[in-house]
Amino acid sequence: MDIFSEMEAHGHEQVVFCHDRDTGLKLIIGIHDTSLGPALGGCRMWAYASEADAVTDVLRLSEGMTFKNASMGLDLGGGKCVIMSEGDVDREALFRAVGRFIATLGGRYITAEDVGTSTDDMAHVARETAFVKGLKGRSGDPSTATAFGVFMGIRACLHQVFGNEELRGRKVAIQGMGHVGRYLAERLAQEGASLVVTDIDANKAKEVAAATGASVVGPDAIYDAPADLFAPCALGAILNDDTISRLRVRIVAGSANNQLKEPRHGAMLAERGILYAPDFIINGGGVINVADEMGPGGYDRERAMTRVATIYDLLRDVFRRAEGEGILPQEAADRIALERIEKRRHPGSMFIPAAYQAR
Question: In angstroms, what CA-CA distances link 280 with 93, 114, 203, 239, 292?
């Protein structure tokens, strides 16, 4: 992989490779764009098959955070960090090392929890740096906020396709029963939707089924499940040449990042008459919740959730713009984000912490 070519092609500012000898930590921090402010994005821990896969993930995820933060109206840029997991570790020591590396960036990157990490892990990070959010006693686990935002986005999609937001009598297929997928399943079931669910951990799927009355299918079978809506709530790149041809739904709307393997897959969905809710719009509830810690007076749950609810209106605007300009929903979402970024960008723009500006 030619890392500089990849950075140049997608506009990344910085990629930092970190190794801690004592814990064996292998950490990659990606900062995509800081035109709007310091880069905010979670810390992911995953058993990557190769270093190249980890680099690809951090580049894609950090770019997605730029678009997400801009679309949510936040004065924050996009970043992400990934940890290459290699089995059992001393999590306190490992995440304190993560905190020390983040501290060296002096505020250009702010982290939070993500796939494979928790609020407990972020508490360890916080012992070494102030540049971490999503802590217990403040905004905490962002999963409920993310799930609520996806729920509001699903209502907007139903209105777009069926002319009403009624979930009773609708069938939803959900992929991934992690925190977000589970919260979403419970909310949809409360509203009268019938569910079919899956997870690579069969026990998680069975637990959700027992709580919601959902039916369970194998991980691969979820793409063939007939439903009104498919909600991907696991990992990215799951909308591709193989899976799109198998979908038997009218809508794709879920919390996973980077759902389209390639941009052309959005066109494939449209050709099949499937409405796609751009992922960095519909899953923005979590980052709104985390960013509220930086608001006046500190974190305010009611204020944060009120703002998360506006994802409904954001998606309606995306669909209106797509129709009005004859473009795909993801193209409309991209334009909304880029227009906000360009208003603030100037030649050589890059967020530099005040401590460095004074030097």
Answer: 32, 15, 29, 15, 18
CA distance 235 to 220: 14
256-284 per-position pLDDT tens digit: 988 999 999 999 999 999 999 999 999 99
Question: Using one digit for the tens of pLDDT, what is the confidence trace for 74-97?
Answer: 999 999 999 998 778 899 999 999
Q: How many Cα atoms within 13 Å fall on the side-chain side of residue 148?
A: 19
The Cα angle at residue 289 between residues 313 and 138, in degrees rounded to 5: 155
pTM for the full model?
0.89
Confirm or reject CATH 3.40.50.10860 for domain 3-67+77-126, answering yes or no. yes
How is 294-353 classified by DSSP, letter by letter?
GSTTS--HHHHHHHHTTHHHHHHHHHHHHHHHT--HHHHHHHHHHHHHHHH--TT-----
Q: Are 183 and 143 in contact (CB under 8 A)?
A: yes
Residues annotated as part of the active site = 80
Protein fold of 143-287+293-340: Rossmann fold (3.40.50)
Give me the residue spans of the domains in the chain. Answer: 3-67+77-126, 143-287+293-340
